[in-house]
Specification:
heterodimer, A: mainly alpha, MetI-like fold, elongated, B: Alpha-Beta Plaits, 14 strands, 36% helix
Amino acid sequence: MRSATPWSDVISYLVEATGETLYMVGVSTVIATVLGVPVGVWLQLTAKGGLRPNTAVHRVLGFVTDLGRSMPFIVLLVALTSVTRLIVGGSIGSTAVIVPLAVGAIPFVGRLVQNILSEVHVTVVEAAITTGASTLKIVRSVLIRESLPALINAIGVTVIALIGYSAMAGVIGGGGLGDLAIREGYQRFNDRVLWSTVAWLAVLTTVIQLGFTRAARAADRRRHASV
Amino acid sequence: MITVENLTKSFQGVNALNGVTLDVESGTVLGVVGPSGAGKSTLARCVALLERPDSGAIRVDGTDITSLDGSALRAARRQIGVVPQGDSLLRQRTAAGNVALPLESAGVPGPQRRTRVGELLDLVGLTDKATAYPDQLSGGQRQRIAVARALAANPSVLLADEPTSALDPETTGSVLTVLDRARAELGVTVLVVTHDMGVVRKICDDVAVLEQGRVVEHGKVLDLVGNAGSRTSSALLPAVDLNPINESAYDRVADVVLVGFAAVGALLPEAAHRFGVELNIVGGGLTRLGETPVARFRLGLNGERSDSALEWIGEAGGAVQRSLKGPQGVAA
């Protein structure tokens, strides 16, 4: 039996893997937010009782969204290889993982956003309509601004989900914390690396979750309520 | 001014509006009243341009606004300030931010916007709450902010849909005062949809009674109260038959409605004096419609010239509603 990996090596493994994970998750979250929020807005606008109800568009968009959400990430990872190559010029490494991560997260974000926007009370939306506001203005100043705290929380949920997905990045050589735990920790029976990674993931996700909760609270004006 | 012409609207075969025709003079307040399901809300939503009528027209200063689209529709919406039913403020915006919303939609630049918001907060008496969020305001204050918001873009018509339905009597007063002030100070035409006759009593010049999607009564409140059979008079005037009276004690028994200080104060004593009759108030009472005192009394008269006295009261401006005991009674 070989001796345990020195702690200094464990830490440098963790630092490197954390960098890869944050890179993959960070970039794909930004992309998923930029593209997923409009999908959610569009779903809500075209929904029954929305600002621009359109059953046909809503159904098609909803179908595509749910199809995307039902796809296991590991399948997406390998299925999108050619697309990934087209976009980032290669099909392995951390950067290559960003494409399937973002693609998987867009419908996820889309549905979350739609659910949140549908919570804005109809009286409030109609009041804005009667002020002569354009649809764009209502989306920005009413739907999104009124739900901002919930939207920030939803992005937090997305980040945590993407950290989970990114554990499979090793399949195409993306590295990251999940890959470290599986290849170095599990497959090479390195318990110290395995459990260190598990503990560190717990800390990392807790801190991220906490950060988003704080940000959501900061964005919520209702907290000033004196009653 | 705003006119509603022959408006119809049905939902899944059920007629909510069956040809509603109304008009509101510039600078006056019309109360639209009626029982639940009479079509009040549908009418309000049509006037607010949230619902398109099946047929008929809604004219603001002569222009039909029911068939507009796109930017013309948005411009028309700014002509009609709406105080929606229920909580309608943006909870993530301050009171001032909420009032500013229509000005942003209208593209009013920042400095002018702030000036205008200041004026409106002053009008509704909430200058000190400019930076408060809706959750920090009481129900009445939120409703006054909603009125300020509705008035922000200088509409010619103000529509209030059940503006007092969720409020206690005291706060109701403050909201009604604000609506009245909007009419008085800005000359805006006000249309209040309400189930509460108290709103009509306090601020309405005109009233329209809606029943089953039709206007069954429409006119000046002070005219309608003099009309014996009108729904408005029975809803707003003091009851005359609370106490049973001994009719045989009088030669004549009649109900009269007196409108205004002069009539309420002087008409009856003068009639008694002129015709030498004994004139007793045996029922009814005094109330106030807006600023005007209005009385409905049940009179018991004794004396030879009782009929002449009643006739004179009618000619002098009192509405003699019915002779409970008169010449017909004698003949029978």
